[in-house]
Design goal:
By secondary structure, this protein is an alpha/beta fold. It has two domains: about 5-130, Rossmann fold (3-Layer(aba) Sandwich); about 140-210, Orthogonal Bundle (Arc Repressor Mutant, subunit A), CATH 1.10.10. The protein has helices spanning about 15-25, 40-50, 65-75, 90-100, 110-120, 130-140, 145-150, 155-165, 170-175, 180-195, 200-210; strands at about 5-10, 30-35, 55, 80-85, 105, 130. Helix 8 packs across helix 10 (about 180-195) and helix 8 (about 155-165) crosses helix 11. The longest helix has 15 residues, at about 180-195. The two termini are about 25 Å apart.
Length: about 220
């Protein structure tokens, strides 16, 4: 029997929450195990229920989505975070991704895309964002084709593994290099792509075809 992806759904609008829960639960491999109506409840459930994925709204009472993500990151939580929001502002998107979220989807996405993203994030994949978000990030980071010309083969290899959701330790093992060396390569990748987090780097990589993904 296939293990189900366990999801905590955090949204302060009951009707929206019910609709999302219904289509997620229709997927045979996904189960909504908790519902939070504010940021504090989302944080409490993430710590007590230990879901695979926290599907997180941005604007909620008590604690905002970005605050929840930052607290979980600082506590080294294993919970994967997927934002589901109506906001496409830079401060929300970049703030959430920099806080360690695995992806950022707009609520306008069709249910099938949200379900695929939940599955991908549960597997540890990075860079699950809506097309509109991806296009906006491309504009913000001002990528151009010259950036890959200056990226080394090793940096591209590291970036490809980042897209797959591997840790620095796992990347080092795969490439036969130390974890410290992986970190140095990542610092260089971030600088060249003008990003500040693994997820942002993964989004750029997938969007521009810099690295292969298993999706």
């Amino acid at each position: 029997m296939t293990t189900k992806v366990r999801v905590v759904l955090a949204d302060d609008h009951p009707i929206t929450r019910e609709g999302i829960k219904n289509f997620l639960n229709r997927a045979v491999d996904i189960e909504v195990i908790g519902e939070a109506q504010n940021g504090q409840e989302a944080l409490t459930m993430a710590n007590s229920l230990h879901p695979d994925v926290l599907l997180l709204d941005m604007e909620m009472p008590i604690l905002k989505g970005v605050e929840v993500a930052k607290i979980l990151k600082e506590s080294n939580s294993n919970v994967k975070i997927l934002a589901l929001s109506t906001y496409d502002d830079k401060q929300y998107i970049m703030g959430l991704l920099s806080a360690g979220a695995n992806g950022y989807l707009m609520k306008e996405e069709v249910p099938e895309n949200i379900i695929d993203a939940v599955r991908g994030v549960a597997r540890g994949e990075q860079g699950w964002v809506s097309r509109r978000v991806s296009a906006l990030m491309s504009t913000w980071t001002q990528e151009d084709s010259l950036q890959t010309d200056t990226m080394t083969e090793r940096e591209l290899q590291v970036l490809s593994h980042v897209v797959e959701g591997k840790t620095n330790k796992e990347i080092g093992y795969e490439l036969g290099i130390s974890q410290k060396t992986v970190e140095k390569h990542l610092e260089s990748v971030y600088t060249k792509l003008k990003v500040s987090s693994r997820v942002e780097a993964a989004v750029v990589a997938v969007n521009k075809g810099y690295a292969n993904s298993n999706r």
